[in-house]
Amino acid sequence: MLNSGRLLKVALPLALPGSLYLVSGRVFAAGENDKSDSSPITDELSLYTTPHSPVYSAKAEVGHVEKTVASLRKSAEPYTAWCQEKTSYALNKAEEYYTTMEPGINASVQTVRDTYEFLMNPPPEFYPSAGAVGFSAILGLYLANGGRVKRLLFPTGLMALSASMFYPQHTASLAKETKDKIYSLASQTRVFLEDLWKNKLPGKQK
Predict the structure, then answer these.
(1) In the chain, which residues have pLDDT < 50?
(2) Is residue 145 located within the same domain as residue 115?
(3) Residue 112 falls within a domain, yes or no?
(4) Domain end position, chosen among 121, 152, 176
(5) Is 36 domain-assigned?
(6) What quaternary structure, including any partners, is listed in this protein's UniProt entry (predicted)?
(7) Do residue 176 and residue 193 come from a single domain?
């Protein structure tokens, strides 16, 4: 009996694999369409559905400080615009004035530099001529007995005469420039007086 039991235990495992080969069956493979159709959608399952709650955007309330700052800014806007306008106007006027006066300033600076260089290295005939011009000024003051006009005209005329004798070229150029300036000033004065006279006429005012 023991031997027959042992033989059954040994024969069953050996016989079962062979019997499995004899069993026939069909296995159906699911296609791609079947897989896509049969797969459940997570949104349709009650376990994964989430209620769509409406989102409300809460508006931030404006505080007292913000209102005060806004009112101050609004009340200061006219003054700020006025200050900006006046500042830009002043800057434009300063720029125009500097542009107008720049040639004269540059000429004055150049004249001072030339005079300094001339005095540092004067020509040999400078001191005698300067002495003669100074003596003529003193002589003019001595001869100008009387009013203030004579005291102004006599020394100036004698100094100009002495300078013209020592420096004829410079005197000629200076006289030409003085003549042009006097002519320009006289023309401007004449135009101004004509305009003033025309405005005062009763026919023109009507």
Answers:
(1) 1-5, 7-25, 27-30, 32-36, 202-206
(2) no
(3) yes
(4) 121
(5) no
(6) Component of the mitochondrial contact site and cristae organizing system (MICOS) complex.
(7) yes
E-strand ranges in the chain read none
Residue 157 domain-assigned (yes or no): yes
> Which tokens belong to 40?
């459940």
Sign of the Cα torsion 16, 19, 21, 24 reads negative
Range of the domain at 198: 168-206
DSSP class per residue in 5-30 = HHHHHHHHHHHHHHHHHH-----PPP
Q: What is the pLDDT of residue 167?
A: 75
How many structural domains does the chain have?
Answer: 3
Q: Are residues 173 and 148 in the same domain?
A: no
Nearest one of 141, 142, 182, 135 to 163, comparing CA atoms: 135
C-alpha–C-alpha distance, residues 109 and 115, integer Å:
10
Contact 167, 145 (CB under 8 A): no
* The pLDDT value given to residue 191: 83
Q: How far apart are CA 191 and CA 105, in angstroms?
A: 28
Contact (Cβ atoms closer than 8 angstroms) between residue 178 and residue 152: no
Residue 147 resides in a domain: yes
Name every residue whose Cβ is closer than 8 Å to that of residue 135 and which is 6 or more positions away in sequence. Answer: 162
Q: Are residues 173 and 138 in the same domain?
A: no
pLDDT at 2: 43
User: Using CA atoms, how far apart are residues 118 and 112, in angstroms rounded to an integer?
Assistant: 10
Residue bearing tokens 């026919």: 203
